[in-house]
Specification:
Layout: H1 5-17, E1 21-27, E2 34-43, H2 46-61, E3 71-73, E4 96-100, E5 108-110, E6 116-120, H3 125-136, E7 138-139, H4 151-156, E8 173-179, E9 185-189, H5 195-200, E10 208-215, E11 217-218, E12 221-229, H6 231-239, H7 242-245, E13 248-253, E14 270-278, H8 289-304, H9 308-314, H10 319-332, E15 337-342, H11 343-346, E16 357-365, H12 370-388, E17 397-403, E18 420-428, H13 435-448, E19 454-455, H14 467-471, H15 473-488, H16 501-507, E20 518-521, H17 529-542, H18 548-561, H19 563-567, E21 572-574, E22 586-588, E23 599-602
Parallel strand pairs: 2-4, 3-4
Antiparallel strand pairs: 1-2, 5-6, 6-10, 7-11, 8-9, 8-10, 12-14, 12-15, 13-14, 13-17, 16-18, 16-19, 17-18, 20-23, 21-22
Bound molecules: flavin-adenine dinucleotide.
Flavin-adenine dinucleotide is lined by residues 29-30, 72-75, 85-87, 91-92, 100, 121, 144-146, 149-150, 152-154, 156-157, 159-160, 203-204, 208-209, 352, 458-459.
Organism: Aquicella siphonis
Keywords: FAD, Flavoprotein
Pfam family, one: FAD_binding_4
Length: 603
């Protein structure tokens, strides 16, 4: 352990004197990261943050560099739902994790430029958009789909939204104010020769970001057309210029695992959101965020309270029924819709399941968007091959967005002039049969194949990949800027509290901390048969009567709910009903012993 008991006492004394709230143990939103030993400090103001950083900086001077204390910032810590750290990658892991919870870090202020706003590090994107619209007649020209991530967290990882003519989120940044890892406060802007390299994806390595100055645009409403579609129709529309017709397009595809998914029009398994800015005076239409939130909550309820992902882990043959009926019904629906409302009310997805895993790849796209149809065709055909083996790796969806991107440093949306960038997410749950293999297969295709994609820094970042090769000269520019930064501020980089093991691995830096955190994996839970029955019964109650797909799904759930299964755990049962689309007819009963939630692995 790099922090001795004596040092812990010193930290605790300092925390007491500054009114800093201390707790032990930290988890991220999706709970794939769980650092039980971390000391979590909830900090109200800049001077308290400086005091903590100065103390750790001083302690680190007397330690061997590889035994240094690591301090990282993480989002979250407000006492409200969805105030969490949303990255899947271990960027925020440290011995000490600071959460900037005070008002000082949530301030939104005007600057001398009407379009540039100074925004505190911990302001969430959705609350920022709302305040900009309502109070300042401004809007963010691009923002993430999730409203709960913070300005500092999203920009650290080169986060992105949608918008054909828009940069990544970091591209909106005009200046950054940071607290250096020696406690000094520094503001940088375009006048700094490394500004573009640093702002694009700072990974939290240059200091703790206190606020950013963001270029906004005049507030507009958005008209949103939701076009219910399927794979062949979507591909036709892309070829016919879908992305050039609308300034903002987002697409969601829910795999339905038909043997002819590439050509089938049977299910509405794609929804295309097309947004166009309209004047603020345009009357709202079909814009009921409260109802939309309830609809999304219903979906989340399936996951969170009914624990459907746990059921699908143990009964993977249910997945096609689940996606064909429940996911397509709740997330896509049957008819095209048009709505008009403020961007912050029509754009964001407001409810999210915790039990998810996400691999997001970004790749350059030409004017004809051929790369998008190639990528989606590859995903669909690979999923079809898995389905032949009775594996259904994706239980959620594939999301696809097009934007212009931002160049510089470790930006994932680097692009050549006149080209675009596609961000493509594949979302599922860890432990779903075939998912790990599919994820690896896709990592090979996207990163090592013709698309030369870059993985999102906050989602799935395999550490066995040569990122110097992926980023080319920009990788070296980033490393050079990082070294220059530490030299300029007279801080020894090998003693930097901000560089954790993950950063050393991906950036090929030799400053590995000796101590490895004992990370507990908390998701991937299997359930016992009795519990499966009650989950299956609960889900049955949610299904409508009358639809063929609902009936198919109900029949499968009823088989699980059948008491007889528990009496004969080793048996294989024949389903009474054979689908027209070669659905699996044997049902392997789960006889795995129930596993406890949470198993510890050393990473
Ligand atoms: C359900 C879900 C939906 C998502 N949707 C999108 C999306 O639409 N678009 C997208 O791009 N991403 C999306 N993501 C990924 C997410 O936006 C990124 O991982 C983002 O970095 C999370 O930001 P955060 O505010 O939660 O910060 P964290 O995840 O806590 O931190 C991210 C990184 O920034 C560092 N950091 C945090 N605060 C500071 C600070 N003040 N100073 C310096 N460093 C800091 C942390 O140490 C860490 O390295 C989604 C993730 C989830 C779980």
């Amino acid at each position: 352990m790099p922090i001795t008991e004596r040092e812990m006492e010193m930290m605790a004394d300092l925390a007491k004197n500054h009114g800093i709230r201390v707790q032990q143990g930290w988890k991220n939103f999706s709970e794939n990261l769980n650092v039980a030993q971390a000391m979590v400090l909830d900090i109200d103001d800049v001077s308290s943050l400086q005091a903590v950083i100065r103390l750790i900086h001083k302690l680190n001077q007397d330690k061997k560099p590889d035994e240094r204390i690591l301090l990282r910032a993480a989002a979250g810590g407000r006492n409200e739902e969805y105030s969490e750290s949303f990255s899947f990658t271990p960027g925020a892991e440290g011995d000490v994790i600071v959460r900037l919870v005070g008002k000082e870090f949530r301030r939104i202020r005007k600057t001398s430029d009407d379009k540039i706003m100074s925004v505190g590090a911990s302001v969430q994107i959705g609350e920022l958009d709302k305040k900009l619209y309502e109070k300042y007649d401004l809007a963010l020209p691009t923002s993430s789909l999730i409203p709960y991530v913070t300005v500092a967290g999203l920009s650290a990882n080169a986060g992105h939204g949608t918008g054909r003519d828009q940069p990544g989120f970091s591209g909106l940044i005009r200046a950054i104010t940071l607290c250096l890892p020696n406690g000094e406060i520094v503001r940088i802007d375009e006048s700094d020769p490394d500004f573009h390299t640093i702002r694009a994806a700072n990974l939290g390595l240059f200091g703790i970001v206190l606020n950013v100055e963001l270029e906004c645009t005049k507030a507009k409403k958005m008209e949103c057309i939701m076009d219910v579609s399927n794979i062949p129709d979507f591909i036709r529309k892309v070829k016919a210029g879908l992305f050039s017709k609308y300034p903002y397009v987002s697409v969601m595809y829910v795999p339905t695992y038909q043997s002819n998914e590439m050509t089938s029009e049977r299910y509405n398994n794609v929804i295309i959101y097309c947004w166009t800015p309209v004047d603020k005076s345009t009357p709202d239409e079909n814009n009921c965020p409260y109802l939309a939130h309830l609809g999304q909550e219903l979906q989340i309820n399936l996951e969170r309270n009914l624990r459907i992902t746990d059921l699908l882990r143990d009964y993977p043959h249910l997945i096609p029924y689940f996606t064909r009926y429940l996911v397509t019904q709740s997330a896509i629906g049957n008819k095209d819709t048009r709505s008009v409302g403020p961007w912050h009310m029509v754009h964001y997805q407001t409810a999210f399941p915790r039990d998810i895993d996400d691999a997001d790849y970004l790749f350059q796209v030409g004017q004809d968007c051929e790369e998008i149809t190639a990528a989606i065709s590859k995903i669909v055909t690979t999923l079809t091959e898995f389905a032949h083996e009775k594996q259904y790796p994706l239980v959620d969806a594939v999301y696809l967005r097009l934007f212009t991107g931002t160049n510089g440093g470790l930006s994932t949306s680097a692009h050549e002039k006149g080209q675009y960038v596609c961000g493509l997410d594949m979302v599922s749950g860890n432990g779903i049969a075939g998912y790990a293999e599919f994820k690896q297969n896709m990592a090979d295709y996207f990163m090592r194949g013709p698309l030369h994609a870059k993985p999102h820094w906050g989602k799935y970042v395999p550490t066995d990949v040569d990122y110097r090769k992926i980023y080319g000269n920009e990788f070296d520019a980033f490393i050079a800027a990082l070294h220059k930064w530490y030299e300029r501020h007279q801080i020894e980089i090998d003693r930097s509290m901000l560089l954790n093991r993950f950063h050393c691995e991906i950036l090929q830096l030799p400053y590995y901390p000796a101590f490895t955190h004992n990370r507990c994996m908390t998701n991937m839970c299997h359930i016992d048969t009795a519990h499966s029955k009650s989950i299956a019964d609960d889900i049955c109650c949610q299904l409508d009567k009358g639809s063929e797909d609902a009936e198919n799904f109900r029949r499968r759930l009823q088989v699980i709910g059948n008491e007889k299964i528990r009496e004969n755990k080793s048996a294989f049962f024949e389903s009474s009903h054979r689908d027209s689309d070669e659905m699996p007819i044997t049902l392997a009963v789960n006889d795995k012993p129930a596993k406890k939630k949470g198993c510890c692995v050393i990473l």
